[in-house]
Write a structure and sequence with these properties.
Blueprint: H1 4-7, E1 8-11, E2 16-19, H2 33-39, E3 41-46, E4 49-50, E5 54-56, E6 62-63, H3 65-76, E7 80-85, H4 91-96, E8 102-108, H5 111-114, E9 117-126, E10 128-133, E11 148-152, H6 156-163, E12 167-171, H7 174-182, E13 188-192, H8 193-203, E14 207-209, E15 218-225, H9 229-244, H10 247-256
Parallel strand pairs: 3-7, 3-8, 11-12, 11-13
Antiparallel strand pairs: 1-2, 4-5, 5-6, 8-15, 9-15, 10-13, 10-14
Helix pairs in contact: 3-9
């Protein structure tokens, strides 16, 4: 029996897992779609700390754009949905450990992640952005060399900031990032542009985006375990259908104020 610790190592900086040995054969498993249909429930994971995409409301319910998309996909597959919240830096580890069936949590699709999970989607697109407080002396990316940047632990933005050589502090999610910037504990924060702008507006923070960051758009996808082509196809069809029939736009208008495909 292969010990799980010797099989997988978690890379916290990227939120991904890599094989710990060069050649380990795993047993061939049946596609999980049939098992999920037998149970009648698909378990989806997210951080619950990324408003307005996913967050816990005053009624202690996990709501937002991500759970709405995940719930609609499940409905079209004839399934109920169970939402599980977990720390972002261990979320892929939980997927591979079978703690849930999919991650519907605004996960950026990257080549590194795609080596260990399969993606459905993308279901929206955004860009990296850097924000400072209004009136900050930092008005350009070129002024960040001596600054302290706040990032969410396990996000691709953390990896980017580390590779760029910036001094960083890590946090659990966007609400913490915004509070730390507002309180002056960090000089700037790095985050997905759409989520940050919406949260800044919603909470009345006086923050501005640095205008000269060179970045490209990236897609957010739904992660599932590899080796499940039927599950992937069923989820992709449900996603494609809801995008085509106007349901996606209704969800997007409600939670993020417009189409973000």
């Amino acid at each position: 029996m292969i010990n799980r610790r010797s099989l997988l190592k978690f890379v916290a900086a990227t939120g991904t897992l890599v094989l710990a040995s060069l050649s380990i054969s795993a047993p061939v498993l049946a596609d999980e779609l049939d098992t999920i249909k037998e149970k009648g429930v698909i378990r989806i994971a997210m951080s619950g700390a990324y408003p307005p995409f996913n967050f816990v409301n005053d009624a202690n319910e996990v709501v937002g754009f991500d759970p709405a998309i995940g719930t609609e996909i499940a409905k079209r597959m004839g399934l109920e949905v169970e939402i599980i919240t977990t720390a972002w830096d261990g979320i892929i580890g939980g997927l591979l450990a079978n703690k849930y069936d999919a991650i519907v949590g605004s996960m950026t699709i990257t080549e590194e992640r795609d080596k260990v999970v399969d993606f459905v989607g993308p279901y929206y697109a955004t860009k990296r952005a850097i924000f400072t407080k209004e009136g900050s002396e930092i008005t350009s990316v070129s002024q960040l060399d001596d600054a302290t940047l706040g990032v969410t632990l396990g996000e691709t933005h953390e990896q980017w900031a580390r590779e760029a050589g910036y001094k960083i502090r890590t946090y659990k999610g966007l609400p913490e990032l915004l509070m730390e910037l507002d309180n002056g504990r960090v000089d700037a924060i790095v985050n997905d542009r759409i989520a940050a702008m919406l949260a800044i507006k919603e909470n009345g923070y006086k923050m501005v985006e640095l205008p000269d960051l060179d970045t490209e758009a990236f897609g957010a996808g739904i992660a599932i375990r590899e080796g499940n082509p039927d599950l992937k196809a069923a989820m992709q069809k449900a996603l494609d259908d809801l995008m085509a029939d106007g349901t996606y736009l209704e969800i997007a208008n409600k939670w993020v104020g417009g189409d973000i495909r």
